Amino acid sequence: MELPRTVGELRASRFYESLARPRSVKDELRENLISRLEQGDKIFPGIVGYDDTVIPRVVNAILSRHNFILLGLRGQAKSRILREMVGLLDEWLPVIGGCEINDNPFAPICKACRLQIERSGEQTPVTFVPGSSRYVEKLATPDVTIADLIGDIDPIKAARGGHLLSDELTIHYGLLPRANRGIFAINELPDLAGKVQVGLFNIMQEGDVQIKGYPIRLPLDVMLVFSANPEDYTARGKIITPLKDRIGSEIMTHYPATVEEGMDITRQEAWLARDGSAVVVPEFISRIVEQIAFEARKDQRVDKRSGVSQRLPISLVENVVSNAERRRLLAREEKAVPRISDLYAAQSAMTGKLELEYEGEQQGAGRVVRDLIKSAVGAVFDGYFGHLDCSRIVSFFNDGGALRLSDMDSSELCLQTLCRVSGLLEVATQSGLADSRDPAATVSTCELILEGLYARKKITRTEERGYTAAKQEPREYGFESLNRSRRVN
């Protein structure tokens, strides 16, 4: 369908009724949300784990026509939720052509648009803005000014147009007026200086803004949404009380409640399809990756105020797959199947995402990360092998057996080594995770068994000797690697 190109054509089109009757952007969001609820459609596609907690509160805020704020620790999809609100906007919005603040063709608020209507009348050009372009986002930083958000005098406009500085035509609009008839989001609100937060009072209460130096008030139509990390209230800044009072709804976000929810998020967000490369991630590897984040969130050495972002398992599983992919390329195998050793090789994806308490800092991030991997493997091992008899495997090591594995050894080479361990392949097959026709999956399963027994202190592991009997004291928590010649501290 061809869209109207002038005010006259717009007046004769189906869009005229919605423009002629007053309908704010909050009403627009509310009506479209009601329609989606009646049809049973998903409100925020791609948001996992919030169906019974956060999403209902966001829905209530929109139905109440509230400006709202999402409060939560890092990596809790706050920005994702705000950005997905554009899906509740109309597909197209008619505006006066060339207008900086998306003026309504039948009720313009800026002087430039009013003059254009006077000159051109029904021939005034009209353009259509898609819903995705009606979302304006600003990351709050201490250097953001009132001029950035609201606007200021533009002396260049005055000079080029021959206008007085007091003329409304010399206004340079800030981000907030440019979000007119749309959604304006501010991330990390506490980082905004207090005097700048004051500049939001009018738009939130009276619905207008006053630009510096001009005796006019612009009646803007904007839905204001914010995000903040509670830690920021004490670490870098705070939301001033009068502004908090003007925010209609305060909604708390949270981390995934279950490992399964976390796995769904990680599977959705992680880059695992490697340009056609054959990558098969065992389910237990995905579960361990997610369990690591859960272990970190309850570990006393990790700062609870900072939290453990959901980005940790996403980055970790990507790095794990990359190490498996590197092994596949070097060993010239058909597919990349991650192993437990790949978790240890991917520690760099974890250390930078953990804020440590004093005890953790004393031990070092590397030690904390290796302990988290060990704990997570133990928890997952119990779920898969807790009912199986692993005594023959333990006896092999108690009788003097030892085993060393490298994260870069091919599946065939590892399988030849693992076959020496009494009962190991039998337990792997009984679990249903291993397949005699799939050496890569079998090796990955066997590594889970060995590391699980180590985590449960049935056997031990050192870098120098690999897996040995439990009576020997472990000195290292990492896997032996072919490309390492010195002990990892």
Which CATH architecture of the largest domain is right? Answer: 3-Layer(aba) Sandwich
Shape: elongated
Structural category is alpha/beta
- Strand percentage, roughly? 5-15%
Distance between the termini: 67 Å
CATH superfamily of the largest domain: P-loop containing nucleotide triphosphate hydrolases
- What CATH calls the topology of the largest domain is Rossmann fold
Low-confidence stretches: 472-489
Helix tally equals 24
Q: How helix-rich are the residues, as a percent range?
A: 40-55%
Query: Largest sheet, if any?
Result: 5 strands, parallel
CATH class of the largest domain: Alpha Beta
Work out the number of β strands.
11
